[in-house]
Each structure stands twice: as structure tokens, then as C-alpha cells.
Amino acid sequence: WEVYRHVLDILKNNNKVEKLYQDMAQLAFTFCIKYERKTEFRKLSDSVRNHLNLIIKHSHQANSINLNDPVSLQLHLDTRLYQLDCAITISLWQEAIKTINDIHS
Q1: pLDDT tens for residues 90-102?
Q2: What is the rounded distance in angstroms from the CA atom of residue 96 to the CA atom of residue 86?
Q3: Is the pTM of this model over 0.70?
């Protein structure tokens, strides 16, 4: 779990490794489901949410992720939908609702 968290923190706002970030986030969600790590799933969801806020905040920097790019937006949306499926799978309804609100925003 800690390795996933650290890797996501390193990759969080760099457009050159954006796909890798999304893949690692989905692997981390899969890990939480496989080993029934509900607390870590909540922390991971908060981290992904915070990373998205940082992307928006630092969008003017070089190599930052551009959410106006359809490919970038689709990658983030796919990860959020996967997060929603995982939250439902392990019955974390509050996280599911937060994820739905994030997707809606």
C-alpha cells in the first residue's frame, strides 16, 4: 500500500507520465479490493481527489496535466469510474457518493 501511495505522489502532476499515474491508481484500487483494505481505499480516494485539486491549482506550470485535453480528461474519468466500481464492490457507500460527486464536478 505504501509503495502505491508514494508512486502516485511522485507521478501526480506530470503530463509525461499521466497514463502511468492512472494505471498505478487503478492497480492501487485493485489492491485495496483484493486484500479488503477499506481504510487504505478511503485514504487512496482522498489522495486521488487531492491530486486532482493540485492539477487544477498548478495547471499553469510546465509539464503539468491539461484537463482541457480530451485524452487527459478521459484518463481521469476512466480512473474515477473504476474507483466508483471498486467502492461499490467493497460496500463503501460514502466513498461511492463522494466519487459520484467528483465525477459530476
Answers
A1: 999 999 999 999 9
A2: 8
A3: yes
